[in-house]
Each structure stands twice: as C-alpha cells, then as structure tokens.
Amino acid sequence: MDSLTQFVLGAAVGEAVLGRKAGNKAVLWGGIAGTLPDMDVFIPLGDVVKDFTYHRSASHSLFVLAILTPVMVWLINKIHPASREYKGRWMLMIYLVFTTHVLLDSFTAYGTQIFWPISTMPVSWSTIFIIDPLYTLPLLVGVIAALVMTRESSRGHLLNRFGLIASSTYLAWTVFAKVIVEQQVIDELAAQKIDYQRVFTIPAPFNSLLWRAVVIDEAGYYEAYYSVFDSDGQIRFRHYTSQHELLNGIEDYWPVKRLQWFSRGFYSVSLRQTDIVISDLRMGVEPNYAFQFKVGELSNPHAKPVPPQQITSIRDLSILRPMWRRIWDQAVNL
C-alpha cells in the first residue's frame, strides 16, 4: 500500500495498543514502524529487475521483523526512558505494526515475501488497489481524533478503534467482492467458450466496485472489466497479442526468468522498435503498465540480452474517467 496508508495504519495500531499509557508517543512510533519496512526501496541492488523483485522480501519477512522488534524497542526506550516500564507493551505494539504492514501489503497485487527466507514465493491476494481512500480515510480520521481529543476524554481512543474496525471491515468486503467477481469472470469465460490458462482479478484504481481481469491464453491475454453493479453479468473480453517468441535465445537470461517468476506468468512481451520489453500485467491498465522492462534487443534477427532497463510508460489518467463513469451510471440505475 501507499506510504500514507501504512503510516496511519501503524499510528492507529500503536494508539490502540499503547495510546492510553504512552500517549502520542505511541502514535508517532507506530507511524514510524509502519513505514520502516518500505525503506528497502532506497537500497540499490544492482539493476532495476533486482530492485523491483526483491522489494517486499527480507524487509517484509515476519521472521526478520521479529528480530528487528527488540532492536527498535531498545531505541525507543533510549529516547523515552520514562516509558521503559511498558517494555512488554512496546514489544507487542511494534511487532503488531510490522505484522499489519506486511499483511496489508499481501492484499495487493504486488506480492509480499512474508515467510522469507523459508519461502520466497510472494503472497498476493490482490483484493485491494495500492491506493484506496475508502480504506485509508477511517484510519486517518481515527488517528486525528486520538491526537486531538484524548486529552479531555477517552472519545479519541474509541474513535481510533472505530477507524480500525471500519477499515478492517472494508478490507473484508474486498475479499468477498473478489470471490464473487472472480467466479463471475470464470463463468463468463465458460459461457463464451474462451480457452484460457489462468485468471487474475484486481480492483480498478482507487476503488473496490469496478474490477479488472487479466486472462492468459496461448496467444496472449484478455483484459476485461466487471462492476459489482453490473446486472446482466455479460463481460466483454478484449484480446491482446503477446510476442513470446521474441524471448527465443534469451529465455534463460536471469532478468527474463525472474520477471516471469515474479509476475506468476501474468506478463506480456512486446517489441518497441528493436527493444524487447516485458510488462507485468497485474499492475496497471492496458496499455499503461506500472512495471515494464527492456530485457533484450532484436539484432540480425536474433534476440540478445542487455542490462535491464525500466521503461517509463505514459501515465494517461484520462483512462480513469470512463471507469468511474461506469461505476456511477450503474449505481444510479439500481
């Protein structure tokens, strides 16, 4: 999730666990701990594919964070010696903040290696978009209420807990919605007699009402959208070709194999002039994908590997307008 969400989630958890005893210090350190795992983005690993695929690995491991927890509590007690009597509570709070951070990330499409190093397979339930105001706002309101109101009464503590309950309920809704939407997509693929290999569903940007589906087949992939307000159930699948043959000759190149593994097979291969580009189909909207990498060049006429480069795609935000218009039109017609 985005940094603001992780900060306010950490702050809300910190306030709920230790706010009555440590006051605003619990909010501050909860927010800091909530953003700490994502600091791995500032560690260069040698090339863009490594930076991309090793993010959310060791830094998001439940085991590594368990080791880091007492170190952070030691630092807190050094800075705030008067809070040492709550050492056990600080330990519980910090690890809960770490845990909620990595679990929330697991609900996104990116994938989080929460069991590293025992298992490096990224966990990805893909039920929530990386920025979703309906998840973040209850947390933000609760934290602000706790900061402003707790001096005079306990109402701020209660509102903070209500924010946690509201955001958690919304997250549970996204799981329920995904189950319904994915089954609808699978049923419609069968009804339209479309052969496929795998299906991936994720909410469209900034909401959980309109969902995007990526369907992989032998020739490429389909993209489709389905709203929870759709009444007829029919889904329009648009097919796009993926030029997998471009990887002939570089199929064993580490960046190629790594991107194939990390994307769980939801990727496309395209030729841009002489550049061979792999796009992760899970994160973005056709044709604007967030993560696209040049991995080779076509030369006389075979492919040759090149040091991977990330391709900056055009961010055409106008593509979001018809999405939101569709949600609104369906809702008002109910």
Describe the structure.
The protein is built from nine helices and ten strands. It has 334 residues and is of the alpha+beta class. It has two domains: 3-131, no CATH class; 192-334, no CATH class. A four-stranded antiparallel beta sheet has the order 1-2-3-4. The two termini are 32 Å apart.
Defining traits:
9 helices; four-stranded antiparallel β-sheet; 334 residues; alpha+beta
Write a compact overview of the structure shown.
This protein is 46% helix and 18% strand. It is built from nine helices and ten strands.
Instruction: Name the helicity range.
Output: 40-55%
Distance between the termini: 32 Å
Give the strand tally. Answer: 10
**Average of the residue pLDDT scores:** 92
| Total number of distinct structural domains | 2
Could you list the spans in which at least 5 consecutive residues all have pLDDT below 50?
none
